[in-house]
Amino acid sequence: MSKFTLKYVVSDKDCRGNTRWYYRAPGQKKVRLRAIPDSDAFLSEYHEAKSGASAPTCKSKKIKPGTVSALIQNYRQSRAYRDLAPSTRKVRDCHLEKTDKSIGEVHANRVTARNIRKWRDAPDGPEAGNSKLKVLRQIFNTAFDDQLIDINPTVGIKCRPKVGNGHVPWTLADVKQFIGKHPPGTMAYVALCMFLFTGQRVSDVRVLGPQHRHNDEFKFTQAKNRHRKPVTLTLPIIEPLARVLASVTSSHLAYIISERDKPFQSDKSLSQRFSKWCVEAGIRRKTAHGIRKGLAGILAELELTPHQIGSVLGHSTLKEVERYSKGARQKTLARGAMKSLQIEIEREQIVPLFIPKIKVGLR
Which CATH superfamily is domain 172-324 in? Predict the structure, then answer.
């Protein structure tokens, strides 16, 4: 078959050269279509996969009551799971499957805090360990609330300390270097200005468009935690950004457009494209999210208060603001402190204002 017209149907070949067909829609798990293409059975499998059901030939796993697998199944049916954003649910499903595969057969009431710490401290790094812990917390918290277990073994278990400082913040020198390669009139320049002059995450900048603009302001709800703890922002559109937006002639509902003349379909696709633009400009190991972090540092160096910085970034707690602006704020505070020390020393004449040169080799 040279061409297939059903949407989201893809194929590959196994080691023997046999063609295998799948239904692979964005944000959904790939489903094998086993019937003969163009047959009624194939169309039936296609529509069943399209509606969200698995292919009928796949056997479901038999879950024993009281096991961790049963708790995972219970969590998947909970309101907390259903309220997750599609992108978050996709990542959560990956962790749930890994958890089910590794400890699904373990009886839930036999899981202790010691077991939880052991799984958290596995040798695959603190980030992976903390991700496991977060998933286990969701599973056991839901089970405890539903009275499926008597003791919640995840209570009091803390995350492992993070290694490193996360995304590397951008500097103004990076911005100049980027513009040197991607000048005004390019979509890369539009994307840079959207990140720099809004301070928002990729998930927000990707969808920002004319529908969010009200005169000289952007009004929108941040994508992160939109269904749990929504944060609605009203951001001023400063003059440099207004000039950039005036140059965008697209009729789409997003300002940033891909080479296909369409808005980017996922956060990952925009992040990857922006990273390529960075590499083209000679900027490596820095991401779109690093602009958000760098903006926090720039605002801190301008001696703005944490509340002012948080109002731009959309952080709900000062702890988050401090985490983003810690390095820059320390630099500003240290500069101010040492300047005060210099003024006091000069006022009290503790050290001479003019120090004679010291000749090397003389005692």
Answer: Intergrase catalytic core (1.10.443.10)
- The whole-angstrom separation of Cα 289 and Cα 281 is 17
- Within its chain, how far is the Cα of 124 from the centroid? 20
Q: Which residues of 116-137 are buried (b: 16+ CB within 10 A; e: fewer)?
A: bbebbeeeeeeeebbbbbebbb
What values do phi and psi take at 36, rounded to 5?
-75, 130
Query: Encoding tokens for residue 328?
Result: 């820059």
pTM of the model: 0.60
Q: Using 70 as the pLDDT threshold, list the residues of the chain that sit under it.
A: 1-4, 51-61, 163-165, 316-342, 344-363
Express each pLDDT in 162-181 by its tens digit: 766 678 889 889 999 999 99
